[in-house]
Amino acid sequence: MADEYFFALTLKGKNTNEVWDPEAKGAGAEDYQGGHKLIIKQALLGPGATEGEVNVIQVEAMTWKDSVKIPIATLKAGGANNQVLLDLSFPDPPVTFTLIQGSGPVHIVGHHLIGGPIEEFDEMDEMEEEMIEDDEGEEGAFLGKSVKFKLRKRLGNFIAKKLEEEEDDEEPKSKKAKTNSVKGKTSAKNNTKAKK
């Protein structure tokens, strides 16, 4: 299971550059299945922001083939643009946040996701194998609950369909004249029905 932590940073004054790189701080991705992931949800100006000043936040991050630098938010104190909701996902550290215009303070908030430790995934695999072995020991081959349910449903539908077909087959037979098995002739009772 992934662990989720609150993430926040502030860009202001001389501190206009901040790098998110948990692997450089000793939490290596090789210890975790799924590594690290950063999700940014909001950027907002702090109460000390200069009225009317435009603040631009830029991000430098990796794409699937190279690094990219791009502005992600423009904020202006004293107006309606003093905060912005974001939904940015950065699956690969490092990610660099830079205040390329303005003096802030600009607060950036989100979530830091960490994949579960590799040992945890190994334990889960072992538990799954034990459960499968237990189920196989009880009733032969293992079938999951959902598979059993689907088979029962299909079998039920199949049986219902066969019963309907038999009823349909019996209906025309009852309308036909029946032959007397002893003499191979139709009975007088059925013969009158057939003539009508």
From TrEMBL:
Domain Nucleoplasmin core: 6-114
MF GO annotations: chromatin binding; histone binding; RNA binding
Keyword Nucleus applies: yes
Matches recorded under Pfam families: Nucleoplasmin
InterPro entries assigned to the protein according to its UniProt record, in alphabetical order: Nucleoplasmin, Nucleoplasmin_core_dom, Nucleoplasmin_core_dom_sf
Alphabetical UniProt keywords: Nucleus
GO CC term (a single one): cytoplasm
Major location (coarse): nucleus
Biased composition (Low complexity): 183-196
Biological-process GO terms, alphabetical: chromatin remodeling
Record localization: Nucleus
Stretch list, region Disordered: 160-196
Family: Belongs to the nucleoplasmin family.
Protein name: Nucleoplasmin core domain-containing protein
Organism expressing this protein natively: Dendroctonus ponderosae (Mountain pine beetle)
